[in-house]
Write a structure and sequence with these properties.
The chain has about 650 residues and is an alpha/beta fold. It has 21 helices and 14 strands. The strands form 2 sheets. It has a 9-stranded mixed beta sheet, sandwiched between helices. β4 and β5 form a beta hairpin. The longest helix has about 35 residues. The two termini are about 50 Å apart. Pfam families: SRP-alpha_N, SRP54, SRP54_N.
């Protein structure tokens, strides 16, 4: 039984609605609004089905008249006639009110009266009956079976005798082998026949002579191969002996400075000595504006690309004159025809291959192209536009829409809001091993300090050797770049750590309490890297997030891994939901995309990660210095993605 069936325009005007279940008229409002927000506005129309709470919604788009047909029914029901019903309703409604849409346009939609209840009930009854009318399955009689045609004698098997079918199969296999041998023999003897016909009648060679000749040819081939392999390669250039130690830009030649065994940093900034180094060398950007988070830039070459016009599969007849050919060419250019799936398929196939080559996950590339096809099918092309340009423009708009976040994460505004409530703003970083959690945490710390906020870093990676020392080094560097003297004697960044082997959730709780007592603005919680399939570690991460309730949970992922990033993000979200004891589990709120400077124009990971989870990319890491932090520019990413 259907819950509702509604027809509305893409402008949001409901033309007609049917409600099959008793209840308030607004019962269909929430599911349809969720469909519009999550699917239609986010360009995720690759699948014509959408689930909202206990309902399943199926929809169909009419791009020519800008209409949407939506049917809703209970998720536990299996209604086989829904697809047929929505197609029939679409065709009937379109044919019935075609004149109003074509002649009056938008006014016809606004002022029209759509009395479609009787037609809909008729179509619903026909669809239900068509699903019930099925030929009953009747069991075959013995006379109709294959076994009845066999005699009793042929079914008796004696010992030592094989069934006739197997013998026949073996005979067939043997005949095939004999046939193959005959073909190869004829191929081998073919050159001999040509030689005998050219030289005249000669005596045929005996078997021993043929065998001797083949042996001589075999030895000749092996002798040639041995001569080739015996040639010694050219001697390589002599390499310098020994290894030279790598010298880092901010490194120190004295090894004693690497000894951190006696340093403690919990609330004591004097225990970690300041280091003197050149800030310009550390930041490598003298002209930048402090505290500003620049947009991601991409320099695209503006080259005029010649687009090939996809001609119709039916070739024009040669009887037409030159004038008819000219008008036919103009008719192909000018938007006089609506787009069909056959016209778009070649272009979409190329677009799909292009997206996959740019590191977009294959499944997501297919869904994107399917969504674009459903959005354009039946739509009339613009004047002097080609199928290629129309599809490409629609795909670009879809990609930009996907990268635009549904929920904008404004960290600075949220930190100021937490300041008014006199509590620290807590951010938790999670991700797999080696993606750059600690490095990008330090970059975000530097950005927050330049905006005037004090930061407490909680070292909750109590597993990886050197994790605490790495954060300690970042703390010293950041304090050297922003000494307390520049901020009225206030230490802008401190490290809270309890060593290794301790409970990460407990350390995070103590760090948040310490930050509240000491008046820190932001707490950045660094966690240990863990694989998405490691259940014990994912349980510990879910515990840390559930106990401490951070304001923002950021997933740190690499831009260069492609499909693996999607798998990591999906499984992290699923693990946080499965291992959390809360009724409404806390999931990932945003993404930090690292190592973006290593991928050139293969930026497909950004599309894949935002498409699969609808989570915004909050920060983008583009280099090795503290100021190499960017905000995502959707148009720049799409320009890099669409570059040939």
């Amino acid at each position: 039984m259907l819950d509702f069936f509604t027809i509305f325009s893409k402008g949001g005007l409901v033309l007609w609605c049917f409600q099959g279940v008793r209840g308030p008229a607004s019962a269909a409002t929430a599911p349809v609004n969720a469909l519009i927000r999550s699917v239609l506005l986010q360009e995720r129309g690759g699948n014509n089905s959408f689930t909202h709470e206990a309902l399943t919604l199926k929809y169909k788009l009419d791009n020519q008249f800008e209409l949407v047909f939506v049917v809703g029914f209970q998720k536990i029901l299996t209604l086989t006639y829904v697809d047929k019903l929505i197609d029939d309703v679409h065709k009937e409604f379109r044919d019935k009110y075609r004149n109003e849409f074509q002649q009056k346009g938008a006014l016809g939609i606004l002022n029209g009266t759509f009395d479609f209840k009787d037609d809909f009930l008729r179509l619903l009854r026909e669809a239900e009956e068509s699903s019930k009318v099925r030929a009953p399955t009747v069991m075959k009689t013995f006379e109709q079976s294959v076994k009845s045609q066999k005699t009793v004698k042929c079914m008796i098997e004696t010992r030592g005798e094989k069934p006739k079918e197997k013998v026949k199969n073996k005979k067939n296999k043997g005949s095939k082998k004999e046939g193959n041998e005959a073909v190869t023999a004829s191929n081998k003897t073919a050159p001999g026949e040509k030689q005998s016909s050219a030289a005249g009648d000669k005596e045929e060679l005996t078997k021993d002579e043929i065998l001797q000749k083949n042996r001589e040819e075999f030895f000749k081939r092996h002798m040639k191969a041995g001569e080739k392999s015996s040639k010694s390669p050219k001697p390589d250039a002599q390499k310098e002996k020994g290894k030279k130690p790598r010298v880092w830009d901010l490194g120190n030649s004295n090894a004693k400075v690497l000894d951190y065994s006696n340093s403690t940093t919990n609330g004591n900034s004097e225990a970690s000595p300041m280091e003197d180094f050149d800030p310009d060398m550390a930041l490598r950007d003298r002209n930048r504006e402090p505290g500003r988070l620049y947009d991601l830039e991409y320099e695209s070459d503006e080259e005029a690309e010649e687009e090939k016009i996809i001609q119709n599969t039916s070739k024009p007849s040669t009887k037409k004159g030159g004038l008819g050919g000219m008008f036919g060419m103009l008719k192909g250019l000018v938007g006089s025809k609506s787009l069909t799936r056959q016209n778009m398929d070649p272009v979409l196939e190329k677009m799909k291959d292009h997206l996959i080559a740019k590191n977009v996950a294959a499944e997501i590339a297919v869904q994107l192209c399917e969504s674009v096809a459903k959005k354009l099918e039946g739509k009339v092309m613009g004047t002097f536009t080609t199928v290629t340009s129309t599809v490409k423009q629609a795909l670009q708009e879809a990609l930009v829409q996907i990268l635009q976040p549904q929920r904008r994460v404004d960290v600075l505004r949220d930190v100021m809001d937490a300041q008014r409530h006199r509590r620290p703003y807590v951010v938790t970083f999670c991700g797999v091993n080696g993606v750059g959690k600690s490095t990008n945490l330090a970059k975000i710390s530097f950005w927050l300090i330049e905006n005037g906020f004090s930061v407490l870093i909680a070292a909750c990676d109590t597993f990886r050797a050197g994790a605490v020392e790495q954060l300690r080094t970042h703390t010293r560097r950041l304090n050297a770049l922003h000494p307390p003297e520049s901020h009225g004697g206030r230490t802008m960044v401190q490290l809270y750590e309890k060593g290794y082997g301790k409970d990460a959730a407990g350390i995070a709780m103590e760090a948040i309490s310490y930050a509240r007592n000491q008046g820190f603005d932001v707490v950045l919680v660094d966690t240990a890297g863990r694989m998405q399939d490691n259940a014990p570690l994912m349980t510990a991460l879910a515990k840390l997030i559930a106990v401490n309730a951070p304001d923002l949970v950021l997933f740190v992922g690499e831009a260069l891994v492609g499909n693996e990033a999607v798998d990591q993000l999906v499984k992290f979200n699923k693990a946080l939901a499965d291992h959390s004891m809360a009724q409404t589990p806390r999931l990932i709120d945003g993404i930090v995309l690292t190592k973006f400077d290593t991928i050139d124009d293969k930026v497909g990971a950004a599309i894949s990660m935002t498409y699969i989870t609808s989570k915004p990319i909050v920060f983008v890491g583009t280099g090795q210095t503290y100021c190499d932090l960017r905000s995502l520019n959707a148009k720049a990413v799409v320009a890099a993605l669409m570059k040939a």
